[in-house]
Amino acid sequence: MRWLGSFIEMLLLLAAVAASYGTEPRFAKWQRIELAFHGPMSRGRGDPNPFMIRFDVRFASPSGREYMVPGFYNGDDHGGLDGNVWKVRFSADEVGRWTYRTVSDAEELDGHSGTLVVGEIPPDTAGFWKWGRLEAVGTPENRIRYLKFRDGPYWLKAGCDDPENFLGNYRYYDTPEKRQAAVDYLAARGINSLYVVLHNIGGDQNDVWPWLGRTPAEAKAHAAGSVRFDIAKLEEWDALFQYMQAKGVAVHAVLEDDSAWTGYDHQRYYREMVARFGYLPALLWNCGEEHNENYSLVEALDLMEQLGQIDPYRHPRGIHNVNLPTDIYIDSPYVDFTSIQTDNAGGAFAAVRHNGLVAQWLERCATRGRRMLVVSFDEARPEEDRRCWWSVYMGGGVWETHVRPPYDRPLSAWEPAWMQLGGARVFMESIPFWQMTPRNDLIRHGHAFCLAAPGQVYALYLPLGGPVAVELQNGSSYRVAWWNPANDRHGRFEAEMTVAGGVQTLAPPGPGDWAVRLTRVD
């Protein structure tokens, strides 16, 4: 019976290990991990300034990779400025046991260590939380030009650009409830990104900033030197950004408005934004709208390098208003996407121009042997012209719709733009867009833009209608399905038929612009 005693001893050991394992904090992969630590009792407006205490937490994964994550002062942890709570927010990308250790210039906050357990993603996880971090995955070799979720699909942006001061004082967006309602509205129409300016002191509307102060002048006084942040406001922003992730709407965080005040401490600002919001899975950093009004491109790239040194997650970064292929931008390792602003020239020519601009950027990236940038149009014009976003999608780029002022209106004021953009996204997500390349050379007659994986799938957009002739690879048959660009996300393909390979002439089922998908029939 000796074996029985050994077996019992083994069971007792396993039970002890399980009990120990069970006492550790448990989180799901990609979930927000928030740890609180008690430091010196402080006054948010007093001296010494608690916001200036350096506090970081080093997380080590089960495989040994390390993340140095900036922490932040959070007052009384209920929005109040006075207290002794410092926090760190983290998002774990591995399942298993993690360790952490704090590093601080305050004795009370330094040297705390512990472990936590990260489990699999629950099947009922909402929104982007189930897919993990949105990342730039392109290399010179794979030539991928889209962002991808680590545990999920490639991402096709169909974004909303306005109102830029979504976090400001416009009466339709001036409470957390109104902002959540606006996110619900966009998500219901298939819009999956929102352009959000985080600082516009001295810029448009002059009503958004993260620093302590009820007026721009007060905020300026707390944005340089002895920097202090508005804890209650930033907690409100964080709740909104979490809500957006659950609804499938990415945060396109614009760090500075055009012509905004630049006298703030950039390092402290970037650090606070990363510390509070860096754990979010779908987060894009934009250096600033119309950067050229405040910085040279070299200066803006330097700022993005500084941000990258702070951000342990390497969220995608870009600089607004670099509109034509620019070699120092393409060569820079500190940016991942373009943020193009075009002019108001309209008509069918606008579609040709936007499609061609995508091709120019991609060709220049390839010529220089660099990774493909995500070619994104943000604040593009002419506003609300679906021919432009369709032409960009067919060129291999992505889109964010800029709408016409006034902006203190409900989002429904700009229908049908949101619905039609959401419909375009449905069309694009019905094809393996990340595997397809621009192939306008396959159009033999008529006016169309073509994105294709020849022999497998073809997508065409006809800005002027048809007919159009396209060259299909021989040896296969293809299922033709037409899409009306006036469709919303609940639209359906129509007028389906099968054609052979070779040059085929296709006629849309109605007047006006149309899109068509051709997939190989095995």
Fill in the keyword field for this structure:
globular; Jelly Rolls; TIM Barrel; 8-stranded parallel sheet; 7-stranded antiparallel sheet; Immunoglobulin-like; disordered N terminus; 522 residues
Could you characterize the architecture of this molecule?
With 522 residues, the protein is α/β, with parallel strands linked by helices. Among the domains are: 20-119, Immunoglobulins (Immunoglobulin-like), CATH 2.60.40.10; 169-317, TIM Barrel (Alpha-Beta Barrel), CATH 3.20.20; 435-521, Sandwich (Jelly Rolls), CATH 2.60.120. 25% of the residues lie in helices and 27% in strands. The strands form five sheets. An eight-stranded parallel beta sheet has the order 17-16-15-14-13-12-19-18, with helices on one face. Helix 9 links the parallel strand 18 and strand 19 (398-401). Helix 8 (348-367) runs parallel beside helix 9 (386-395) and helix 9 runs parallel beside helix 10 (417-429). The N and C termini lie far apart (65 Å). The relative contact order is 0.09. Residues 1-21 have low confidence and may be disordered.
